[in-house]
From TrEMBL:
The protein's name in its UniProt record: Membrane protein YkvI
Organism of derivation: Jeotgalicoccus aerolatus
Keyword annotations from UniProtKB, A to Z: Membrane, Transmembrane, Transmembrane helix
Entry superkingdom: Bacteria
InterPro entries, alphabetized: YkvI-like
Transmembrane domains' residue ranges: 33-58, 78-103, 109-130, 137-160, 183-205, 217-241, 261-285, 297-316, 322-343
Length: 349
């Protein structure tokens, strides 16, 4: 069970980033639909559990050790290259969202301009990629329980300080910007784009796990934790929609309402997750084109990092509502192909 929990926590670590932990994604994909967003959260939890299990078992069956190998296996020689290209460039898009998220966090918590905050994160990520190419980033599974604890504190605060009736909260929530026009489509899209970014890594992560039950349970636990986090964040924001409405960092706003110290701890945790995700995504994007040992790797990292920072100037909320939605639709193909691949016999190595 310990190994399964590690796999599940790592899976959560892959997906939890600026948009998720800040509450901005949950706001656009769930809370903006009011009470129906709660049902959407339950649907999302069930999908994460099932697909987490599916991808984890697929990784074990394939003994996957390559991002490219996985995509070509589930997509074949025709669709595989398309998936490879789309997901590779989406990695860059996620890194851009992380830079923008860092800017919003620094601005809301420390009063630093969003542009300066994005610059700080971009420099930190670029320096990390320049100084350590052997082991760029380790998935910090221990951050997941810490995040759940903070969300529980925020939830309890929201419940006991709620000034609105559920009807009033529902009405106010529906005034917020939604990523899609329908709560059910929103739930499916949310799962889709998250798995598009994290599924390949989950498969590779479970590739060395010989015990299929351990891998499968890891996927289930990861999906369950993700689902629980989404529902808790959604309920907390719905209950205090009068406070978080229109905020770029809703959970950070709620944490700061409890106590400045809680807000600071939340901000530090959020920045840590943004940093890890940005480093992992930008590294994965760069090495897809240039080998780490190549002389052109470091110059490429600098150029790509600068381009990512420039792109982040579009704004965090705008990026969450556009980049992720587009990838969500494309991710449907990945999910369907992965399930089909799991149902057939794995390749013998």
């Amino acid at each position: 069970m310990k190994r399964s929990f590690q796999i599940g926590s790592a899976f959560v670590g892959l997906i939890v980033g600026a948009g998720f932990a800040s509450g901005q994604e949950v706001m656009q994909y769930f809370t903006s639909f009011g009470m129906m967003g709660t049902i959407g959260g339950i649907v999302t939890a069930l999908l994460f559990i099932f697909l987490g299990f599916t991808f984890a078992r697929l990784g074990t069956n394939l003994k996957a050790d390559s991002h490219k190998t996985v995509l070509y296996y589930i997509g074949g020689k025709y669709i595989g290259p398309i998936l490879d290209i789309v997901i590779t460039f989406f990695l860059f898009g996620v890194a851009v969202v992380m830079f923008a998220g860092a800017g919003s966090t620094f601005n809301q918590m420390f009063g630093i301009s969003a542009a300066a905050g994005s610059v700080i994160m971009a420099i930190a990520v670029i320096l990390t990629l320049l100084l350590n190419t052997n082991k760029i980033i380790g998935i910090i599974a221990t951050i997941t329980p810490y995040l759940i604890a903070i969300i529980f504190i925020i939830l309890i605060y929201s419940i006991f300080t709620m000034d609105l009736s559920l009807a009033e909260a529902d009405a106010l929530a529906r005034e917020e910007t939604s990523a899609t026009s329908n709560w059910l489509l929103s739930a499916f899209l949310y799962v889709s784009y998250n798995l598009a970014a994290g599924a390949a890594l989950l498969i590779i992560m479970t590739g060395n796990e010989r015990n299929k039950k351990v891998a499968g349970m890891g996927g289930i636990l990861g999906g369950l934790m993700l689902g629980v986090l989404i529902i808790l964040i959604h309920i907390a924001m719905l209950f205090r929609i009068d406070i978080v409405g229109g905020k770029e960092m809703p959970t950070l706003e709620l944490a700061s309402q409890i106590h400045p110290a809680v807000g600071l701890l939340t901000a530090i945790a959020l920045l840590g997750m943004i940093y890890n995700t940005a480093v992992g995504m930008l590294y994965s994007f760069t090495v897809r084109f240039i080998a780490p040992e190549s002389k052109s790797f470091r110059p490429a990292v600098i150029v790509i990092g600068i381009l990512g920072f420039i792109a982040s100037m579009v704004g965090f909320t705008t990026l969450v509502g556009s980049v992720y939605v587009v990838m969500g639709y494309l991710g449907f193909a990945l999910i369907i192909l992965a399930i089909a691949a799991w149902l057939r016999k794995p390749v013998r190595k």
